[in-house]
Amino acid sequence: MTRAVEELNRRMLRSRDAIDRTYAQPLDIQALAQVASVSEAHYIRTFRATYGETPHRYLQRRRVERAMFLLRETDRSITDVCLDVGFASLGTFSRTFRDIVGVNPTDYRAHAEAAVAPNCFTMAWTRPSSFGEAASRNGQ
Questions:
Q1: Which CATH number goes with the domain that contains 94?
Q2: Dist CA 135 CA 113 (whole Å)
Q3: How many Cα atoms are found within 13 Å in the side-chain-facing hemisphere of 104?
Q4: What is the span of the domain harbouring residue 17?
């Protein structure tokens, strides 16, 4: 790996960390591109090439992961969870949640069990897979 590629990967990782820290805020491609020191268009292309999904889809998946935790571990209303993780619309939240997880938030909550393992293991075990989404859309 060349030094330039290594440096770009480091900057992309910093921008992904910025998304992780501010997942409940609106996605600001311009600010993230500045973190990575590239243009907005190049940022989106490079992010997708590096992580296999666009920044927007990555943010949606991170929000859904957090929502899964809140639905599993708390008794807060689905609307409150939706707003807390950064979605502005309950309809968009429900549709995105179903697309990523495979069931709607109500069904997920009804069948989810509270975790008895450390949070890092639970997150890895319950993390929605982007590959599964692509495979299901492609009929695999």
A1: 1.10.10.60
A2: 27
A3: 9
A4: 3-52
